[in-house]
Amino acid sequence: MRRFKWLSVIVISFFILSCGKSLPELKGVDLKAWKDDSNGCQHKRSQMTDAIKKEKSKLLALDELQVIKLLGRPDRNELFKRNQKFFFYFLEPSDRCSEHDASPLKLSVRFNAMGLAKEVTIE
Fold it and tell me: Which of 2, 11, 40, 45 is most buried, with most CB under 10 Å away?
């Protein structure tokens, strides 16, 4: 009886842990180069703009930690009303770079109060 309980706990734990959603693959986006190009200062992200435009819908419904795991820490984040949060990833050099544009292109991910990506835009 005791052996059955432990076996049940192990089997149930395995099923619970294996049900997680895997991270999507963003075709045409070199994620290592993306993460290394903080604030878009090295112009690596600007070369991936077309690919990220095509693949941005794959980011929808991911939670905050999954987006961070996939794209790295955001260049900027913003808290908004009703517990909404925005992550910004600059595709062109931001004002934190030595050479920057007046209004750089950026990937914006909006999270709802539940922490899931609700809207992904390039602005």
Answer: 45
